[in-house]
Design goal:
Helix content: under 10%
Number of helices: 0
Distance between the termini: 33 Å
Number of strands: 5
CATH class: Mainly Beta
Number of domains: 1
Largest sheet: 5 strands, antiparallel
Radius of gyration: 12 Å
Strand order of the largest sheet: 4-3-2-1-5
Length: about 80
């Protein structure tokens, strides 16, 4: 699946070095196409006040689109 820039997606795995957890929401800020392989995406993660807390690059298999059957929740940042 190809995602659009600035689309919000959900993480499918923990990114422990950044304190991020599976289920956290991020915004796509760059796509990294890979010929014959899995594309990568740079994501920006914000806190509830809209401040950037992390910028990460992950493979496409590490993210999924948001759906209408999901709900946002709040958790404290690890660390």
């Amino acid at each position: 699946m190809t995602y659009n820039l600035f689309e919000e997606v959900v993480l499918l795995k923990d990114i422990s070095e950044k304190g991020l957890k599976k289920g956290d929401v991020a915004t796509i800020v760059e796509r990294h196409p890979v010929a014959g392989g899995e594309d990568g995406y740079t994501l920006e993660v914000f806190n509830t006040l809209g401040n950037t807390i992390a910028v990460i690059t992950v493979s496409e298999s590490a993210i999924a689109p948001l759906t209408e059957k999901e709900i946002f929740s709040v958790r404290s940042l690890a660390g």
